[in-house]
Amino acid sequence: MLDVPQNEGGVSSHKQITPKRRGIDPNTTGKWRRGGLSVTEIHICQQVTYTNMLKHGYSYASMKPNPLMLALSWAFLPVKLTLALLMNLDRTRNIVEAIRRRL
After folding, report:
1. What percent of the chain has pLDDT over 90?
2. For FRET with 46, which of 24, 30, 33, 64 sits at 20 to 30 Å CA-CA?
3. 20 pLDDT exceeds 50?
4. Residue 22, helix vs strand vs coil
5. What is the average pLDDT across 78-83?
6. HEC string for 59-102
7. Are 88 and 94 contacting, i.e. CB atoms less than 8 angstroms apart?
């Protein structure tokens, strides 16, 4: 499963991808620790994935998010999910199936 193509020649959100490279790009591993996500975002991701993180041997990074930012992030989640869905409708053939796979 780790021998995946690195985006088959397309462009990722942060750099040009080489079409013939395979596997996980070590230069992008851990990018979230170097400013890719806020403390609040890291905290939420860890809350959502906690059980699987432990099951697969990942350590839990101790984060103390601002309580107001945490509440706002959770409050705006449905709005952001709806906007992401609407902005990607043209990329999805079967929207019900796409939602089911992600949940």
Report:
1. 28
2. 24
3. yes
4. strand
5. 91
6. CCCCCCCCHHHHHHHHHHHHHHHHHHHHHCHHHCCCHHHHHHHH
7. no
